[in-house]
Each structure stands twice: as structure tokens, then as C-alpha cells.
Amino acid sequence: MLLKSLNFDKPEHVLPTVGHLQSMLQLHFTDPDMEEIAYKTLPICQNTTVLDLLNNLSTKFRLDDINNYGIFKVEDGRETLLDMNECPQFIKNHWFVESLERDINSYFTFHRINRYHK
């Protein structure tokens, strides 16, 4: 059904990437050592919550307290903190479907909830 709705004749149409087809999630974050944006692509199940993801990231990045950090969705330049029970893969899948209808700039970022206070 989805394939019928895809118009491959449109040159601006973008086919799904591996991240769209598999359970991969790309997170943008500021590398504290380099003070620049870095990207991590992580294997994340569909039902992985933000809390699960933060627990995994706390081990990987040796975070002091996961309550100080959040996963944010950025849509067309607007950043929104995700609730601990939200599943980023569901949001990503929604973005993919929405991107078939209009151009959207969306991604996930990971950083302190209040960046200016360490």
C-alpha cells in the first residue's frame, strides 16, 4: 500500500535510508571534548523509551545524573524535550511518513536539560 503512494518519478523524492528501514536512531550531541556537534547512530528497538535510552547513554558517556539530561526532538528548528515514556522510534517513523508529504527538517538531540548550568 505504501509503495503505491510513492511517486518515484518526482526527482526531489528521497528514498528511505537504512536508519528508516532498521531500528537505528541517530542522535546529535555536543562533544564536550571537541565542543562541536557529533552524531551517534544507535541500535534502538521500537519500544525503547527515552528513560531506557538515557540509562544506556549514562553508561556510555558516564553521566553524573540522568535526570539532568534529556532527549529532544527538533522539528523545523524548534526543540522540544521528550517525556521519559515516549518512544523515539515511533516519532522517527511518523517523521518519515510526514516527509513523504512535505519537506521537514527533523532530528533528535541529546544534552543537558539546562545547558547553561553544569
Helix content range of the residues, please?
25-40%
Mean pLDDT: 76
What is the number of helices? 4
* Relative strand content: 25-35%
- What's the N-to-C terminus distance? 49 Å
- The sequence of SSEs as H and E is HHEEHEEHE
Low-confidence parts: 1-11
Q: Strand tally, please?
A: 5
What's the arrangement of strands in the largest beta sheet?
A: 2-1-5-3-4
Alpha-beta classification:
alpha+beta
The largest sheet is: 5 strands, mixed
Please compute the radius of gyration using only Cα atoms.
16 Å
Shape: globular
Explained architecture:
Strands 2-1-5-3-4 form a five-stranded mixed β-sheet. The radius of gyration is 16 Å and the shape is globular. It is 27% helix and 29% strand. The termini are far apart. The protein has 118 residues and is α+β, with helices and mostly antiparallel strands.
What is the topology?
Elements: H1 2-5, H2 18-21, E1 24-31, E2 36-43, H3 50-61, E3 69-75, E4 78-81, H4 88-99, E5 106-112
Parallel strand pairs: 1-5
Antiparallel strand pairs: 1-2, 3-4, 3-5
In short:
This protein is α+β, with helices and mostly antiparallel strands. The chain is 27% helix and 29% strand.
Keywords:
5-stranded mixed β-sheet; alpha+beta; 4 helices; 118 residues; 27% helix; 5 strands; disordered N terminus
